[in-house]
Design the sequence.
């Protein structure tokens, strides 16, 4: 099962600060329940307006039985999918909403930082227990480090394309953007929207030439993906955000 990600206004925690479990949950996040809350809760209508003001082409793709799903795309084709539940109407105050599978992490963080300029602090939370408090002034690299980088991570890899070689491995092709990769390590494909960590069984290199430029492309080969999972990755094509290479799973 893929992990789920939520954006939670700190207002929700202040509303529940009488509960000791709330204090335990936010401990170490930067949310100080002992102080006054300076954030406020946006309505669904205000979130939609913020998406448009942020320059995103926004569409409501589902509005049924209290569930609203909004798709937003920027001029680069990067997408954001937001899911709201138990919504009565657009004036409903939204303390918490889900970031849909396949949403661009970079765009997600940028939008929440923009939303925070008006509505204050939000907690970016993953049900794996990972979280990062997003404020309008917090460095994006720090948010990435807290959400996607850990002691198991040894490198990062940017996907350009993929290919299945006859009677050989399925290869993810691209560039190493950070660290060093060795056979026997694992690809954490969560960033691509796939809850898999296949083993790197072989690494191959090839020279690429285009528009007079020459560079070395890296191929990470594995046999641990199903046909549906391979097709999912092929349909992704290239992906702007690097995914992690980890030393164990």
Sequence:
């Amino acid at each position: 099962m893929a992990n789920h990600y939520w954006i939670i206004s700190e207002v929700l925690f202040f509303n529940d600060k009488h509960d000791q479990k709330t204090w335990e949950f936010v401990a170490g996040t930067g949310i100080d329940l002992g102080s006054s809350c300076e954030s406020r809760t946006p309505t669904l209508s205000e979130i939609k307006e913020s998406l448009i003001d942020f320059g995103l082409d926004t569409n409501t793709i589902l509005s049924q039985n209290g569930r609203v799903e909004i798709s937003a795309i920027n001029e680069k084709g990067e997408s954001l999918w937001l899911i709201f539940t138990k919504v009565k109407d657009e004036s409903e105050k939204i303390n918490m909403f889900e970031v849909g599978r396949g949403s661009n992490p970079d765009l997600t963080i940028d939008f929440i930082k923009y939303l925070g300029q008006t509505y204050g602090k939000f907690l970016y939370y993953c049900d794996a227990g990972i979280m990062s408090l997003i404020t309008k002034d917090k460095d994006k690299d720090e948010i990435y480090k807290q959400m996607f980088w850990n002691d198991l991570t040894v490198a990062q890899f940017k996907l350009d394309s993929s290919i299945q070689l006859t009677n050989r491995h399925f290869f993810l092709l691209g560039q190493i953007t950070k660290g060093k990769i060795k056979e026997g390590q694992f690809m954490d494909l969560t960033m691509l929207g796939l809850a898999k960590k296949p083993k790197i069984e072989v690494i191959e290199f090839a020279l690429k030439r285009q528009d007079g430029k020459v560079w070395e492309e890296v191929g990470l080969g594995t046999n641990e993906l199903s046909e549906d999972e391979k097709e999912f990755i092929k349909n992704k094509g290239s992906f702007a955000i690097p995914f992690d290479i980890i030393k164990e799973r």
